[in-house]
Amino acid sequence: MNISPCGINCDVCPLKAQCGDGCQICEGKPFYIKDFGVERCPIYDCSVNKRGYKTCGECAEVPCQIFYDWKDPSMSDEEHNKAIESNVSLLKELNGAKGASE
What we know:
Layout: H1 16-19, H2 23-26, H3 42-50, H4 65-69, H5 77-101
């Protein structure tokens, strides 16, 4: 399973054809990032570059304020919050499974 730092399952993402193999490969610079006026996704930057995590599931602060601030403008607040819940749930599930297997 190819999971981005924020918890998106890149394997089933509808933008996969445009993005390629996800944020781990493009280093937090998906094709749409410049539309937001930044060079790199702030979630990727915090998780991978600043904290050295593979995903935010390793962080005790997930979901942090960056998750709430980094919103797709085409989503309603309700859709955005549901996506955060779903992504964080997957991250915690995967991190729990990883911790259990170590």
